[in-house]
Amino acid sequence: MQNPGPPQSIKLDSTRALRGHGRVISALRTLCATLLLTATLGAAEPAGPQAAPAPAAELSVGDAIVLGVVEGVTEFLPISSTGHLIIANRVLGLESEAQLKDKDGQPLWHKRPTEANPDGEPLTLKLAADTYAVVIQVGAIAAVLFLYAQQLFLMVGGLFGRSSAGLRLLRNVALAFLPVVVFGLLLHDLIDQYLFSVWAVIVALVAGAILMLWAERWREARIGVGRAKGDAADLPPRNALLIGLGQCLALWPGTSRSMVTIVGGYLAGLSPAKAAEFSFLVGLPTLGGAALYKGVKSGPAMIEVFGWSNVLLGAGVASISALIAVKFLVHIISRYGLAFFAYYRLALALILTIVYLL
Fold first, then answer.
1. What is the main EC category here (predicted)?
2. Residue 9: exposure state from Cβ atoms within 10 A (0-12, 13-18, ≥19)
């Protein structure tokens, strides 16, 4: 299996830029692994005398593990993690919009009624589950930090003038991240209200599969004239920004942030493996920003519903699953391109259509 290491040209520059940082990189990886183990085992520890109040709704250990596996496996594969989590929430029965109540029978609120908003925003199982799906992305982020610690230190070195390749890579990651921040903040509430549905996911799965098959044919036609060259650090700023604009399509659930970033990398002239690696790096600030935004906005409500232990367990499982999935993606896409995942998306869309029509 191919190790998703740094691109060759970056390695040459990083030899000088990262000299002396080997122990730091190893320590970072050890820390990530320790945090992962602590999160997973901590969820199974018995509650002590000072335990937090019981959750308002039941999320079984099995449910937390299922959601963690779905998040970790699908976050970096071009098959849509959000789409799969929407489906998983429905299968697990986590879509109820009935207002939850505390142990005394009093209604729970995400946002209490005010003069400006007399109806308030009730605390529901669906709201907590949607937040949970985003917050446990932290586990998937930890997996990429573990695997790509060297590139991260290279970018840090570039920031301090120690690596020109690292500085270019940091610039391109920032440019690819910027558009999704702007559009994500502007459209977040509309997306939550109108696009989190199974039918929206089905449409996006099919459209994404068609785009992937087209991109794969386009890439294969261009390989003969040397289009699949270069590293992410060597992308012109304009191309990095265009990849970021394309990433905004992934705000539609079911599209896949990884998919549109990889397709953008294809069109910019990157090989499949290098396009996938760039999608991982761009995913760090994208997923981290989404998790932070959702955590600040609805995190306390989610904890009140599900409790801390299941959140830690889901994040831990997501991290282990993502470690495996990232290696799997680089191996498959290097050998077969995007077609494998495109056909999976079409099959999934067909199955979902049959299930929901029947």
1. hydrolase
2. middle
Tell me, yes or no, whether 4 lies in a domain: no
SS3 100: coil
**In contact, 153 and 21? CB cutoff 8 Å:** yes
Distance CA 107, CA 133 (A): 24
Beta-sheet pairing, 109-111 with 121-122: antiparallel
pLDDT less than 50: residues of the chain = 1-3, 6-21, 23-25, 27-28, 30-52, 224-226
**Within a domain: residue 138?**
yes
Handedness of CA 121, 297, 285, 306 (dihedral sign): negative
CB 232 within 8 A of CB 278: yes
Longest dimension (CA), the chain: 71
CA distances from 64 to 94, 149, 226, 317, 339 (A): 11, 28, 46, 8, 31
Angle subtended at Cα 135 by Cα 317 and Cα 107, rounded to the nearest 5 degrees: 115
| Residue 15 belongs to some domain of the structure | no
Residue 344, both tokens: 């999976």
Give pLDDT tens digits for 304-329: 888 889 899 999 999 999 999 999 99
140 in Cβ contact with 287 (< 8 Å): yes
The pTM of the full predicted model, rounded to 2 decimals, is: 0.79
Please count the structural domains in the chain: 1
Positions of E strands within the chain: 109-111, 121-122
Instruction: Give domain status of residue 177, yes or no.
Output: yes
State which residues form the domain around 320. Answer: 55-96+122-357
Could you give the CA distance from residue 6 to residue 148 in angstroms, rounded to a whole number?
Answer: 8
